[in-house]
Each structure stands twice: as C-alpha cells, then as structure tokens.
Amino acid sequence: MPPRAPFGRRLAAAIDTYGPLCVGIDPHEELLAAWGLPSAADGVREFALRTVEALRDVVGVVKPQAAFFERFGSPGVAALEETIAACRAAGLLCIVDAKRGDIGSTMGGYASAYVGEDSPLAGDAVTVSPYLGFGSLDPLIEQARATGRGVFVLALTSNPEGAQVQHAREANGTSVAARIAAEAGHRNAAELEAGEPLGSVGLVVGATVGSAPRDLGMDLAAVGGALLAPGLGAQGAGTDEIRRVFAGAEHAVLPSSSREILSAGPTGLAVVAQRVQDGLRDLRRSDGGTSD
Ligand SMILES: O=C(O)c1cc(=O)[nH]c(=O)n1[C@@H]1O[C@H](COP(=O)(O)O)[C@@H](O)[C@H]1O
Questions:
Q1: CATH of domain 7-282
Q2: pTM (two decimals)
Q3: Whole-number CA gyration radius for the chain
Q4: Nearest in space to 58 (alpha carbons), one of 273, 280, 292
C-alpha cells in the first residue's frame, strides 16, 4: 500500500471541495519589492509562507516555482522545503514546479528528490519535461505512484516558443504533443480501471494554446490525468479561453495563475483568488460538473 492515497484521488477531492484553481507561488523580484520584502532567501520564504497562509480554505492546490527559490542557493532551497512543509500543514496540495527531465538513470535521482517518500523537496506532485523521450520519465513516474504522488508532463506549454518542438510531427504524422498525451493516457489506464477518478500522470497544457490540441490531434479527455493549465491571468487567458481549449475535458482542468493573484499583495490575494475560483466553478457547472 502506498503511504498516502493516490494523487489523482486526493486532487479530485481537493477540486470538489474548493474548486479547480491552482495558485502559483512565484516570488518574482518585482513582487518581493511590491510586498516590501528583501530580495533574499528570507524574502522568498516570507512571501511563500504568507501566500500559503492566505490561501488556506480558498484553494486546494498551490504550485511553488522552484527557480525563484533556487536563485538564492541553499537558503533559497531551504525556503522551498519550508514552503512544501507549510502546504502539508495547511492541507494544501503542493505541485513543485521544477520541470525536471533527463536520461532514465538520472531521473531515478530526481525521483528520490521530488517524489521520494521522505525527501524534504517532495510535495504532492512535480512538473517534468518529456523532451528526452517520454519513457525516460518512467523511473520518476513509478516512484511517484508508489508514494501516492503525481507528475505533470509538459505537453503544450503556454509560451509561443513551445510550438517549435511540441507541434512537430513524427514520420507517421503524429504530433509530438499528441504522442505525449497518448503516452500519459497509457500510464493512467490501470488506475482508471481500478476506479480512480484521475490517474497520477497529468499533462501541462497552457490556457493560451487556443485550438492547438484539436489541430494537433490530442485527445485530452482520454488522458485520464489532470490537465494543469498555466497562462490564466498575467499571460492573457481567462475562463473563456479555458472553456475553448479544454472543451470536453473541463472536469480534469486545473487552471493555474501566479502573478495576477500575487500582485494583489499579502492582504488582497485571497480575495482575488476567491474571485477567480468562483469564475472557474461556473466553468465546471457548464460542463455538468458537480463541484458546489
Ligand atoms: O509548468 C508550468 O507551471 C508552466 C508551464 C507552462 O507552459 N507555462 C507556464 O507559465 N508555467 C508556469 O506557470 C507560471 C505562470 O505564472 P503567471 O504567468 O504569473 O501566472 C510560471 O511559474 C511558469 O513557469
């Protein structure tokens, strides 16, 4: 038995309780200044812990972006570890946005770091990059499943440069993005057959990608894992864009927003997050969803 319930089950329960919004914890330089915090490990630590505290009971999921912690070296990494622990204590699911990806044997090392049972850097899920081949991720995916954790695999990223790689097609005409979606779907099949609401292997599909999933032949509804959708807010996407990109798969979408919410400051961010959350509950209702 894994030490905790499977990630997909825990995520589905969090979405049912709070709604689908994930808030990114991205302590940008400008945001630290606007919050009156120093550009130092202590500043990002304070920023992240205040954000976690403010979001308790407003959202079910947060996503600290590792880069903004790592830039301060080991004290910054310690601040990330403290943030992960604070999420656990607050009952928030924590997706560590580290976007790791390497050859399979090295992925075993990343697995120990980000989904290892007792690792201080392990949240509830981690973002990974499949551009060394999807199979290279398997050591991490297997360990994540064994510890009740999840993985979000980049498929169609929110930035315009992503298309150069992700829209490319294999000799048989299959797009890279569709192949990644299909590979994730295979890895979720057993959990879904066992009755889990969502598999442990999610995808990252930007809320800004428009008709690309359809144009590229991706079957998002068949992935069976959650669809993390950054790009909401600061990158220009709103609920309408999400509705269009994820038509037919709305039940699995986890829209994510960082700067739009964090720029409201430590005392205002909960109100903004609640407003965004409320708009997204409507999205689920329009899909016949049950989250009330
Ligand atoms: O994996 C991610 O979270 C991610 C994937 C992607 O395609 N685009 C994307 O913006 N992100 C992350 O989502 C966050 C977006 O932040 P805002 O644009 O401030 O909402 C950043 O931490 C990005 O690194």
A1: 3.20.20.70
A2: 0.96
A3: 18
A4: 273
| Cβ neighbours, 10 Å, residue 29 | 11
* Residues 6+ positions from 233 with CB-CB distance below 8 Å: 257, 258, 259, 260, 261, 276
**Alpha-carbon distances of 215 from 156, 182, 246, rounded to whole Å:** 12, 15, 13
Beta bridge partners, 100, equal 128
Report the 10 Å Cβ neighbour count for 139.
Answer: 20
In degrees, to the nearest 5, what angle opens at C-alpha 126 toward C-alphas 228 and 165?
A: 65
Nearest of 181, 87, 174 to residue 134 by alpha carbon: 181
How far from 288 is each of 202, 252, 283, CA to CA, in Å?
22, 13, 9
**pLDDT (tens digit, 9 = 90+) per residue, 43-72?**
999 999 999 999 999 999 999 999 999 999
146-163 residue pLDDT tens? 999 999 999 999 999 999
ipTM of the complex: 0.99
Tell me how far the alpha carbon of residue 231 lies from the centroid of ligand 1, in angstroms.
Answer: 6
Map tokens 């510890």 to a residue.
Answer: 147
Verify whether ligand 1 is closer than 6 Å to residue 234 (CB atom): yes
Integer Cα distance of 274 and 279 in angstroms: 9
Tell me, using a 6 A CB cutoff, whether residue 230 lines ligand 1: yes
In the residue annotation, 99 being an active-site residue is answered as yes
Instruction: Enumerate residues 6+ apart whose C-beta is below 8 A from 65.
Output: 24, 25, 26, 97, 258
What letter represents residue 141's amino acid? I
